[in-house]
Amino acid sequence: xxxxxxxxxxxxxxxxxxxxxxxxxxxxxxxxxxxxxxxxxxxxxxxxxxxxxxxxxxxxxxxxxxxxxxxxxxxxxxxxxxxxxxxxxxxxxxxxxxxxx
Length: 101
What we know:
With 101 residues, this protein is α+β, with helices and mostly antiparallel strands. It has one domain (6-100): Arc Repressor Mutant, subunit A, CATH 1.10.10.10. It has helices spanning 6-12, 15-24, 31-37, 42-54, 77-100, and strands at residues 29-30, 58-63, 66-71. The chain has a 3-stranded antiparallel sheet with strand order 1-3-2. The longest helix has 24 residues, at 77-100. The mean pLDDT is 90.
């Protein structure tokens, strides 16, 4: 199974983006709240959110004048599929080894 997880891994390679994703994983948050929780500026948070949005890891909804960012639960599917490939290959190899004995 081939997946297109490379852009997601590139986006998640940055520690600030991983921190942002963790912050929005359970509760939608505005940029200002994210900036207050991180050691980076508000413009930097906005740039990181754009990257995360572009690769499908976060969604944004408007509530009045605020933009609330949340993790897109389907966004990590390619990463899960990429890791599952290795898990499935290892299980198949184990099953084959057991059958040979």
